[in-house]
Write a structure and sequence with these properties.
Strand order of the largest sheet: 2-3-4-7-8-12
Radius of gyration: 22 Å
Strand content: 15-25%
Shape: elongated
Helix content: 25-40%
Largest sheet: 6 strands, mixed
Number of strands: 12
Structural class: alpha/beta
Number of helices: 9
Distance between the termini: 37 Å
Order of helices and strands: HHHEHEEHEHEEEHEEEEEHH
Length: 373
C-alpha cells in the first residue's frame, strides 16, 4: 500500500492523557472555546518539503534511540523506517498531518506500542522541558478544573453501594482535594464500584492517592522502570490519608471496557493482582508504558514510551494484551452486573431482619432493570 493511500490518524489520538504519569495537551495546542453543541473547528493542515520530512524522520528516530523503553526494538524501528526512506516511500507525502500519521503507523507496525505516536500542530509547539523520568508535562489547570479533574460522578446506590465514575487520573496538585472528597464520600459504603470504562489514563499521583484509601496501611503496588535513568520508581500507598479510608475488607469492583487504557489499566492491574478488586466488563486496551513528550521541531512532536511496569504480584504487564476481567460482560452491562455482585456479597454477611429484607428487595429491583449492552 502506498503512503498516500494510508489512513490519517487524528491529532486527538496522540494528545490525550496517556502513560502512568500525566501527558496532556499543553496550552499552545488547545483549541478555541466551543459553542455548546458545535463541533470543534478543524485544525489547518500544513505542507512539508523534502528537507522537513528528513528533519522530522531523523528527529523522531533520535528520540526513539535515546528514550524508547526497549533499545533493541528502537533499533528495529529505525531499520524499518530507513528502509522505507531508501525505497522513497515518503517522497510523495507533502501533508504534515499525513506524515505524522504514516510514520506512527509504520513505527507501530514494528513495536505494536499504542502509546507511541507522532503529532503535528499548526500552532507552534512551545519548548518542552527535558523529561528524563517519563513524567510528562503540566496540563492546563483551568481546563482540568472545569471538568472536575476527571471525576464525573460520585454517589451511593441503593443498598449502600458507593459508585465513582472517573474519566482520567489527573496529576495536578489541585486535583487532590477532589479525589480526597470522592473517597471520603464513599467511605461509609458497604461496597464500592469504580467505573473506569471511559478512562484513558493519566497520572500515578492520583492512582496512588485513590489506592491508599482502599487498603488499611502501606502496600507496595509495583514499580516503574525507566530506560532513560536505569532506575525504578516505587509505587506505594500512603501510610496516612486525609479523612477516612474505605479500607481493605469491603468488596471493591472495577468496571472496564476496551477503552480503558494506560494508567487506568495500571490502577486495575495492581488491585486485581493483589486480590483487592473484582474486575467487571471488557478486556482493556493494552497500554502499559509511561511516555515522555518530546518536541521534534516547531510543529512536530512525539510521544515516546520510556518505561515499563514491574510488580511482584504478577508476571509481566498488560502491554499489547490488556487486562482480562474477572467477570466478562459487555461494557453496557457492567454497572448492573457489578451492582448485583456487590449486593450478593453484602447479603452473604447480613443476618435475617429488616435490613436483609430491604437488600433482597433492592437486588430484585436491580435484576429487573433493563440495561443496554
Amino acid at each position: 500500500m502506498s503512503c498516500l493511500m494510508r489512513q490519517a490518524f487524528p491529532l486527538s489520538v496522540f494528545m490525550r492523557s496517556t502513560g502512568l504519569r500525566t501527558i496532556l495537551v499543553f496550552s499552545a495546542l488547545l483549541s478555541a472555546p466551543l459553542v455548546p453543541g458545535q463541533a470543534p473547528p478543524p485544525e489547518p493542515d500544513g505542507n512539508v518539503d523534502a528537507a522537513e520530512r528528513t528533519r522530522v524522520i531523523d528527529g523522531a528516530l533520535a528520540q526513539l534511540r535515546s528514550k524508547y523503553v526497549y533499545a533493541d526494538k528502537a533499533a528495529e524501528m529505525e531499520v524499518a523506517i530507513r528502509a522505507r526512506c531508501s525505497a522513497r516511500e515518503f517522497d510523495g507525502v507533502n501533508n504534515a498531518r499525513n506524515l505524522a500519521s504514516i510514520l506512527t503507523e509504520d513505527l507501530r507496525d514494528v513495536c505494536h506500542d499504542l502509546h507511541l505516536g507522532l503529532y503535528y500542530s499548526a500552532s507552534p509547539i512551545p519548548d518542552i522541558p527535558e523529561d528524563v523520568n517519563g513524567i510528562g508535562n503540566p496540563s492546563d489547570a483551568e481546563t482540568e478544573r472545569r471538568s472536575n479533574f476527571g471525576f464525573e460522578g460520585a454517589r451511593v446506590l441503593p443498598g449502600n453501594i458507593g459508585y465513582i465514575n472517573l474519566l482520567r487520573f489527573s496529576g495536578l496538585p489541585q486535583a487532590r482535594p477532589t479525589g480526597i472528597a470522592a473517597m471520603n464520600f464513599v467511605a461509609n459504603a458497604d461496597a464500592l464500584i469504580i467505573d473506569l470504562r471511559n478512562n484513558r489514563g493519566g497520572s500515578t499521583d492520583m492512582s496512588n492517592l485513590l489506592s491508599s484509601y482502599l487498603f488499611d496501611g502501606v502496600v507496595h503496588l509495583g514499580d516503574i522502570y525507566f530506560r532513560t535513568t536505569g532506575k525504578s520508581m516505587p509505587l506505594d500507598t500512603a501510610a496516612e490519608v486525609v479523612g477516612y479510608r474505605f479500607g481493605s475488607a469491603k468488596p471493591l469492583f472495577i468496571l472496564t471496557s476496551h477503552k480503558t487504557f494506560s494508567c487506568a489499566e495500571g490502577f486495575t492491574f495492581a488491585l486485581k493482582s493483589l486480590g483487592r478488586a473484582t474486575v467487571v466488563g471488557e478486556t482493556t486496551g493494552g497500554g502499559a508504558h509511561p511516555v515522555s513528550n518530546a518536541r521534534i521541531d516547531s510543529h512536530f512532536g512525539i510521544l515516546v514510551p520510556t518505561g515499563r511496569v514491574t510488580t511482584p504480584h504478577a508476571k509481566g504487564d498488560w502491554e499489547g494484551t490488556g487486562i482480562e476481567p474477572d467477570v466478562k460482560v459487555q461494557s453496557g452491562l457492567a454497572v448492573k452486573t457489578a451492582n448485583l455482585l456487590a449486593l450478593d456479597r453484602i447479603l452473604a454477611t447480613t443476618p435475617s431482619g429488616p435490613h436483609r429484607d430491604f437488600l433482597e428487595r433492592t437486588r430484585l429491583a436491580v435484576s429487573q432493570y433493563k440495561a443496554t449492552p
